């Protein structure tokens, strides 16, 4: 049976470690943990970081979620959107466009025909403005759904926003396929000119629900 590229690399790493005569290194894990902030301060910090990354941010309550999402989608001219199978249908009751429920049977290239996608999220970090998706909940969708369409509207529960990175990572399961989002996809060319939308959505709109 032919070994995969991953198996080959790991085998070479194990061989190199076996040949090494150096002492085993203990990596220090004395991170700052257990930090917290009041809701208002945590929200303000998170929004500040998101805006710094050029993400668009709206806040809403549980009662106004559908109205705010409809406004965001209308502002971007999104007439056909993709949604994960577990997204709360009540969130889109104010949207009058076409909604396509994604599945593993849908070829990834066909997702380019969508104007955008609406998903939930797993956890977020206020200090870095990072949103984590781990696919654990059915409202997050598969990775392709959040990478191919040019617009990603991500719903974040304020209760899921942690102050720092250690606090956020502690909420995740390492074995899950984790995606970290810090603003819209962007890179710089050889002249250091920022180019957005190269490796994922050109536009990230974050809707933060301040209560459930």
Automatic annotation (TrEMBL):
Name a Pfam family for this protein: LUD_dom
Provide the protein name.
LUD domain-containing protein
Q: List each copy of the LUD domain by range.
A: 115-208
Enumerate the SUPFAM superfamilies for this protein.
NagB/RpiA/CoA transferase-like (SSF100950)
Taxonomically, which superkingdom?
A: Bacteria
